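Weekly sync notes, structure subgroup
Attendees: PM, AL, DS (notes)

Item 1: joint prediction request from the bench team. They want all four components modeled as one assembly rather than separately. Inputs as received:
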Amino acid sequence: MTDATPLDAEQLAAYFALKEVGSLLEHAVEQQLRVDGGLSGPQFQILARLAGSPRGHLRMTDLADGLVYSRSALTYQAAQLENAGLITRAPAEDDERSTVVTLTPGGRERLGKVMPGHIEVVQRLLFDTLTRDDIAAITDILGRVRDRMRTVPPRSAAPRRSTGARKPAD
Amino acid sequence: MTDATPLDAEQLAAYFALKEVGSLLEHAVEQQLRVDGGLSGPQFQILARLAGSPRGHLRMTDLADGLVYSRSALTYQAAQLENAGLITRAPAEDDERSTVVTLTPGGRERLGKVMPGHIEVVQRLLFDTLTRDDIAAITDILGRVRDRMRTVPPRSAAPRRSTGARKPAD
DNA sequence: TATTGTTATACTCTATAACTATA
DNA sequence: TATAGTTATAGAGTATAACAATA
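Output from the run, pasted for the record:
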């Protein structure tokens, strides 16, 4: 049990680099979004996806796909955005169970207000350091990883219920 | 500030891939840590850094360096770990202001209990998809990005002791 | 019965600012 | 005065489970 082949030094380096860059970037971006437009990361993501959709509206389920959060978390964020007047929610016409989320003009405006700073941060933090080749490499490699992650079973198959001594966290 | 050159398609693809992989990986890892050992991501990070240090102890300041969180967040997590018996805290001998954090045997054990699963997840999610060349490329590219991120002044420009403040204020 | 979404609840985590104490 | 760390507070975000409504 204790002898799962450890990650070698190069894997570790790659893993840590990925983790750190992801964290720092996320942190910087979230701060910018909050300062420039009072948006959290998840909220920005929702608005951006709506703006990127053909008619500026998507169902909750569409929004949920590809998000890391739970349904209730999405509902919570949608409520925040609705209260702020940035989106509207209405039952779908073809399927009354569904909720159609629509970007309001105010939402679009907010997005426009925040995007320049967003782009600036990502430019400065990420792309100022990268050549075109770097970018291509990252896209290729991480794109593959992402596709794989979306496919791989979420680790219920791992037979790891060994010790049985569930330490009470006290 | 209204005319920031937008990111081109390739930059966007790279940015999204990075963001998504980072999120998915973090999410999967945190779930594993919680299930296998009742640890949160930050808690695991603290334990791991202590285990990786020469004598299994570091000052709070050492732990704070390189972390994205605030000092109070670190204090909170340290308190959690101390209550769980995984670390101890004691004033430093040479400088009574400092707190020395030490990994307990229990903490080391907990880490050992969690590591196999951790490694397994990272292996399966990340490295099963990557060639040695991929890994080298990621380490090189993201390593450079990370170094740069650590250097670049934060956007909201706190007064820095060094010269070269890029933008006085927003 | 299955799917879509919301709500109620409880919890974890975080940041800010005020505070203590040492240097 | 500056540094190391803690605490008090207050808020944001999340997951789980129960729930309602529609298919």
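Discussion: The first helix of chain A runs from residue 9 to 37.
Action: AL to compare against the crosslinking data before next sync.
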